[in-house]
Amino acid sequence: MINWIKNRKKHILTCLLAAAFATSTRAQEKERFPFQNTALSFEQRVDDLVSRLTLEEKVAQMLNAAPAISRLGIPAYDWWNEVLHGVARTPYRVTVYPQAIAMAATFDTVALKKMAQFSALEGRAVFNKANQDGRTGQRYVGLTYWTPNINIFRDPRWGRGQETYGEDPYLTGMLGSAFVRGLQGDHPKYLNAAACAKHYAVHSGPEPLRHVFNVSPNKHDLWNTYLPAFQQLVTNTNVAGVMCAYNAYQGQPCCGSDELMVDILRNQWKFTGYVTSDCWAIDDFFKNHKTHPDAASASADAVLHGTDIDCGTDAYKSLVQAVKEGKITEAQIDVSVKRLFMIRFRLGMFDPSEMVPFAQTPASVLESPEHKAHSLQMARQSIVLLKNAANTLPLKKTSMKIAVLGPNADNPISVLGNYNGMPSNIVTALQGIRNKLPGAEVVYEKAVNFTNDTLLQYTDISSQLSWQGQPGFGVEYFNNRDLRGEPILRRTEKTIDNNWQEGQIVVDTLKAYDFSVRYTTDFTATANGSTMFELDADDGYRFFVDGKEVVNAWLRNRWGARTFRLPTMAGKTYRLVLEYYQGEGKASVRLRTGNLVKSDFSALASKLKDVDAIVYVGGISPQLEGEEMQVNYPGFDGGDRTSILLPAVQTNLLKALKATGKPVVFVMMTGSAIATPWESENIPAIVNAWYGGQDAGTAIADVLFGDYNPSGRLPLTFYRSDSDLPDFTDYSMQNRTYRYFKGKPLYAFGHGLSYTTYRYSKLVMPATAKPGGSVSLAVTVSNTGTRDGDEVVQL
Question: Which CATH architecture has domain 369-453+600-756?
């Protein structure tokens, strides 16, 4: 078990809790039905409303995209929203905090609760603004957030471990509870927002197998590792929702598990909130797990097990037929529909705005100075100083020439992590260092990619591109995914470099979902040789040269650029066409050109002879690890890692940098544990900076140059090698995490250095304790160094 306190030599760390919250609701119609009578209890109003619905209307409300019921004045509502580290995927600009695993490294429940409060405030502003903008019922603007992810990060290869609070059940439960309390608020009647604990319950990869695999942990592991955080949030924190997982447990899909869903969640824990399936999980019943013959059987069974929402599919539409066939009764469907409307009533969606304390939250709270300041502070708190030989850090601000190298040095994707919103401003490590040292020369080179040393040196060919006499591309926009019919707009654009949030306006009234684009241009070569085209998009694309398809990534790309080399003849013109579509989620499309060049480490080293220090910013990124991705590089597969070692090309570069004799600082950005055996022996200073949010670069620079004393602690074990890990698919906790690992870790759970020193004294604790009881103790922590600092006390 762990506990922690914060100690500061000169200052007491306090966190101000937001004093007021707001929401937005639709205007109350003239009262026509008892469910509109605010003098009645929510229970009475829900009963009345549901009694007025037809079976078909009830079933439709059990999909994540619940349609409007105009005859009763019920607006459309989409339950699907995310707020992992700030409001995610919204069409508006919002504050982005450090990734969840980074916030876990703060061990600070007060700071996390404050982050959740600020995120709820911005979420209310998004909801209100969306309603004002006519976006009612759209995805990612609602008040029901499918967060937090409280799965246990049992294996560092899992790509979604970055979304969790680490490997310890107690820490996960405490941080999860702080998040839920901050997000939902403490109003006696209304929820500020509705949190949802996911993915219930035994779920942590592998990503490529999540729709088909079955787990059968022993009872000890179930109750001592996989369930405690969920129990904490359900029984002690009153979380509003739970999401059941894709995989099967003991031979039954999690969303239809007798033990998990009925015996434990509803009966033992007395959970009365709503349950949503993970998206497309109901289809898995009959398509992948093969436990049910068809959609009707799967849907009826899921509802009977307490799964109220079918996310992502329309399998639940079959419930109408299931009732007729006697697989389920309408009264049993009523139970789920009532749970869903209870949440919406508690969110104030059916009450006059003057009654709901969150109804008037203005858009001005989005990215407020207070919120941005807290994002920066949490980024600072999250940074873990892994190694600092000979006091290499902090670096001197008087340095006149600094080299900043690496694939993450100027990578905004690694700053933001996954399940993120989009802020107005992003500070990368390179930008943060340049801002910190305005009078110094900061030399930057990417040097290597994450997994190889062949880089595309970008060239500008804009003068060689034209369409119908105009420079650039002829662009056709379609309001469907497959370029059907007449385009809604034609125009010329000079470049292809776009990044939209879902629902953001693309052009005119076209929003960034369910649309497609065709870019056409004539490229005239100026020399014999070749030109390399680099294409990247989310969702899909295909590339044609003179009518021939040369790149096909039409099936959802999910990160990872592709290249095509075009042999050229001077003076010849080539017709280039890029077709792109966007379905849901974030949208992006980019085309760049250049020439592939292999990195020359010797030449690079010679350029660094006169630098005062080298800062290498590497590690991995959300481009390589994440949710069910189409990624297959050395060490990475499908969103997970096949090796926890730092990619060899980065180690080789660090060896060359070490050979220069200059001080080398290795800044790792990652969402999981990376094994760095050579680096830990040979690089004097190593800083783990995670995916630090919108101001990550500022926080990194503050730590590197001594304006902030690092206090982060590892919320997971950093192992030495792949051989330390059991089989990824083995859900036994034997030899996993700090609680059961029998070997010697590279960096242990809770590890983190400081620029100052502390002395512990006067430990006071009782002489005896009852089995299963709590123990209170006290200890005096003194800062014996010369710098202020925070200390995490671990027991």
Answer: 3-Layer(aba) Sandwich (3.40)
